[in-house]
Write a sequence for this structure.
């Protein structure tokens, strides 16, 4: 992610991610309020996986604080303290997030004037979420948004170390990609998600929960997926640079993005295979690729 606040920074280019957080806010707040009822420890530990460094990071934190505040005001229960861990790769712009904490605390005080506000503490957790992050049985809620479409690594054979390059002319799943490469990406998704679920299961308390939002697809045809069409256009853009002599052809042929947008049935199958979690709510929702078009997408799947 590009650091800072310049025009090409993630801070300026993360409105699609913000729209996803708004879409899932009711689900998140409902879960947080339910967990307050069953909380045996005075501190609720919440981890945001792949937090990045834009205002979205603290927008998620404020949503959780708001849910606990409403719960305390309604039921007048014992004070609940919140411990937030913000997780991302060590190269993430954590400084930006931490430098805005005082302004964030002031805005929380203003927004909740007269309401009970839980004490909250925020810490950074620089590491990959495909590794163990926290002690066993210590986390009440994991949250991740716009992250789990990214794989932990490229599948064996797609690293671009030697010829022939199986995904020649593409940087991801595109119209000309051979079926064997699609299968490699699907197998890597299964491996990564099984590992992710195993790691989080070890770190969660009994009856802990996760809210995960990531890019996927609604049709079985992997070639027609919007995400893959997007990367197909990027492949064509790089190809034009190759034709102009600005990029070497081997650079394009050997490069691949570690990304895969799964079908909902693929996600369900991995959860079932893990035998560690129960999928209590799933929803596939659409959004406009134009970040400044706020028209609502169509709900195409909703089941409980």
């Amino acid at each position: 992610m590009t650091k800072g606040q310049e025009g090409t920074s993630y801070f300026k280019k993360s409105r699609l991610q913000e729209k996803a957080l708004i879409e899932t806010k009711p689900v998140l707040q409902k879960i947080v309020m339910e967990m307050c009822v069953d909380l045996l420890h005075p501190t609720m530990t919440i981890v945001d996986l792949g937090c990045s460094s834009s205002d979205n990071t603290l927008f998620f934190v404020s949503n959780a604080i708001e849910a606990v505040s409403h719960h305390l005001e309604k039921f007048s229960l014992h004070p609940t303290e919140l411990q937030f861990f913000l997780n991302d790769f060590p190269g993430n712009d954590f400084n930006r997030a931490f430098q805005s904490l005082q302004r964030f605390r002031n805005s929380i005080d203003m927004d909740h004037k007269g309401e009970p506000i839980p004490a909250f503490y925020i810490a950074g957790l620089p590491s990959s979420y495909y590794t163990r992050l926290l002690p066993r049985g210590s986390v009440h809620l994991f949250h991740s948004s716009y992250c789990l479409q990214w794989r932990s690594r490229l599948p064996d054979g797609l690293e671009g170390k030697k010829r022939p390059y199986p995904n020649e002319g593409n940087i991801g799943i595109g119209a000309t990609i051979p079926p064997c490469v699609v299968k490699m990406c699907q197998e890597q998704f299964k491996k990564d998600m099984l590992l992710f679920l195993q790691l989080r299961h070890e770190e969660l308390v009994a009856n802990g929960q996760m809210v995960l939002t990531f890019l996927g697809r609604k049709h079985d045809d992997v070639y027609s997926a919007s995400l893959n069409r997007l990367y197909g256009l990027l492949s064509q853009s790089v190809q034009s640079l190759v034709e102009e002599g600005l990029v070497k052809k081997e650079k394009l042929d050997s490069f691949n993005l570690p990304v895969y947008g799964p079908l909902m049935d693929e996600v369900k199958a991995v959860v079932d295979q893990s035998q560690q979690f129960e999928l209590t709510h799933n929803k596939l929702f659409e959004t406009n690729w134009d970040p400044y078009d706020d028209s609502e997408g169509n709900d195409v799947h909703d089941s409980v």
